[in-house]
Amino acid sequence: MKELKVLDADFEEEIPKSIQDSYTPDLADRICELLGEGKALRNICGKDGIPVTRTIYKWMRVYPPFSRQYQIAKEEAADAMVEEMLEIADDARNDWMERNGDTVPDHEHIQRSRVRIDTRKWIAAKLKPRRYADKIDHTVSGSEGGPINLGCVVKFVHASAPLLTHNTDGSDSAATG
């Protein structure tokens, strides 16, 4: 059997056979399933038979179907992050604390929850912009939402006729010439 020589386009080096041998469609499915659930690649790599991140990145360059599968999984992760945002927002368990016998808001926890939501919101907007990014309307329209009138008026004046000039005081006068 002839050995496949695959080059890493970024480093112009031959990709080790061990990386080629480690790729299987089942393993790719498992990785993408975990990513689609919103798990971070750095948290799943190197565990439970999943290769390190460098190998996954090389797979994306070498195996175009895996690259597309990875992209779809990351888009699914955006949906998972939105679900997480709802859970974080609805969880008020640690929003209050006891201080000197009084129940007071735990501003540090509330702020941390806000940062967690904002981070997920930003990432979701980048992963799936059509659904989660802020929509900016660049539509330009004329009065009452109608089209913009770009027409102009050109008047041809006979040279022997006197020209009217509009003065700054609002009056008109005939120009002599």
Q: Could you name the CATH class?
A: Mainly Alpha
Average pLDDT number: 83
The total count of helices amounts to 7
What is the annotated CATH architecture? Orthogonal Bundle
Radius of gyration: 32 Å
Total beta strands? 6
Looking at CATH, the homologous superfamily is Homeodomain-like
CATH topology: Arc Repressor Mutant, subunit A
Structural class designation: mainly alpha
Order of the strands making up the biggest sheet: 1-2
Distance between the termini: 98 Å
In total, how many domains does the architecture comprise? Answer: 1
Main sheet: strands, sense, barrel: 2 strands, antiparallel
The residue ranges in which pLDDT falls below 50 over 5 or more consecutive positions are 7-12
The H/E string reads: EEHHHHHEEHHEE
Query: In what range is the share of β-strand residues?
Result: 5-15%
- Global outline: elongated
| Relative helix content | 40-55%
Keywords:
177 residues, single chain, two-stranded antiparallel sheet, 11% strand, Arc Repressor Mutant, subunit A
Q: What is this structure, in a nutshell?
A:
The chain has 177 residues and is mainly alpha-helical.
Task: Give a description of the structure.
It is a single chain. With 177 residues, the protein is mainly alpha-helical. It has a single domain (7-132), classed as Homeodomain-like (Arc Repressor Mutant, subunit A). The protein has 7 helices and 6 strands. The strands form 3 sheets. A two-stranded antiparallel sheet has the order 1-2. Strands 3-4 form a two-stranded antiparallel ribbon. A two-stranded antiparallel sheet has the order 5-6. α2 (25-36) packs parallel to α5 (64-90), α4 crosses α5 (64-90) and α5 (64-90) runs antiparallel to α6 (107-127). The radius of gyration is 32 Å and the shape is elongated.
